[in-house]
Amino acid sequence: MGFSEPTYIQAKVIPPALEGKDVIGQAPTGSGKTVAFAVPIAETVKRGAGVQALVVCPTRELTLQVAGVLKDATKYQGLTVSPIYGGVSLNPQREALRRTEVVVGTPGRLLDHIHRGSLRLAGVRILVLDEVDRMLDMGFIDDVRRIITFTARDRQTMFFSATIPGPVRRLAERFMRDPLLFEPIDEAEKPKVDEYYIEVPEEHKFQLLLALIDYDNPPSAIIFCNTKIMADLLGQGLWRNGVNAAAIHGDLSQDQRERVMRDFRAGRLKILVATDVASRGLDIYGISHIFNYDIPEDPTDYVHRIGRTARAGRTGKAISLLSPYSHDAMRHLHELHPGIGPRTFEFNPEAYQGLDLSRVPRPRRDFHPRGGRRGGPRRGGSGPSGRGPPGPRRRR
């Protein structure tokens, strides 16, 4: 699976997990924690004995990512791994659940199958909550508790995430038995990210972003926004100005999201414009830059955003654009992450006045979150793979 020696979290978690002990693993993104619970699942689950392992994830992207790793880890045991998530038909999933031993899914869709009787968890021997703090942030706490109640009490339980805040610890106290907590203590395990911020007037943010892309020429980058509409608008603005970019967020269909991610992984897209739906579960190596076009309101989201770069020992760069409207959020962020420093960059906004969108993109009142006016996204166009970024249609 590409590891010549175990990472810190793998070396700590795998031995007690193989003994059946409950564990809480805190590790930065890209540190191999998926393999840390995939190995015990591969060694414990028996072929043909029904659903015996359940991994709960907050997003569809993370579900597919984890399912891929589990398929690699269990292929020599002949186990079946089924990813279960919303946005697609229930029927194929129902058929898959009849012959699977390992289920990876999002809370809402898992409950759908539980209530319909197509998923029974009484035989679950291993329960894993991955990115558990994100599930709490996204309001899945009640769903997660409900799912846990359908599993056997003598199961083995493992929690994994990049951060373990108080609510996660309280959840562990209720549903785990004397869990072992493993936290990173080695500086070598921390991502090697150079963090910067640049102060810029709001009306010049878009020009500055283009200038930075021009100057640094990142081979692969993610630009984070706080809203779906801004992600769409920014993706359109970059594309119109010659940058090979596309947006991804929760309002896109599953097919659209998978198509964008295929293009990004294959290098057909250079830049991904994303909301925080992409800050978890995107295990993509080679991302050199993270741009925070908007400063996240929750400082933990910043941790997960910049965790998309510098994965598995690589180095990366994170640049936040700090406008007057985001000073309060940045001040709080700087208190928690003192490593962020100002970047000296000679930026002349006058050189970028000839843009299609020379000012920061702003949504119109009738702008639809899916990327067009009321009535749906624009078809065709000259965007990635001939489909084009979603954009507003002209009134007839």
Give a topology summary:
Elements: H1 8-18, E1 23-26, H2 33-44, E2 53-56, H3 60-74, E3 81-84, H4 90-97, E4 102-105, H5 107-116, E5 126-130, H6 132-137, H7 141-149, E6 156-161, H8 166-175, E7 180-182, E8 192-199, H9 205-216, E9 221-224, H10 228-240, E10 245-248, H11 254-265, E11 271-274, E12 289-292, H12 299-306, E13 315-322, H13 327-336, E14 341-342
Helix pairs in contact: 1-2, 2-3, 5-7
- Arithmetic mean pLDDT: 80
CATH superfamily of the largest domain: P-loop containing nucleotide triphosphate hydrolases
Tell me the name of the CATH class of the largest domain.
Alpha Beta
Distance between the termini: 55 Å
Q: How many beta-strand segments?
A: 14
Low confidence ranges:
357-396
**What is the count of structural domains?**
2
Portion in strands: 15-25%
How would you portray this structure in words?
There is one protein chain. The chain is α/β, with parallel strands linked by helices and 396 residues long. It folds into 2 domains: 8-187, P-loop containing nucleotide triphosphate hydrolases (Rossmann fold); 191-386, Rossmann fold (3-Layer(aba) Sandwich), CATH 3.40.50.300. Helix content is 34%, strand content 16%. The chain is built from 13 helices and 14 strands. The chain has helices at residues 8-18, 33-44, 60-74, 90-97, 107-116, 132-137, 141-149, 166-175, 205-216, 228-240, 254-265, 299-306, 327-336, and strands at residues 23-26, 53-56, 81-84, 102-105, 126-130, 156-161, 180-182, 192-199, 221-224, 245-248, 271-274, 289-292, 315-322, 341-342. The longest helix is centred in the first third of the chain and has 15 residues, at 60-74. The radius of gyration is 22 Å and the shape is globular. The termini are far apart. The model is unreliable at 357-396 (pLDDT under 50).
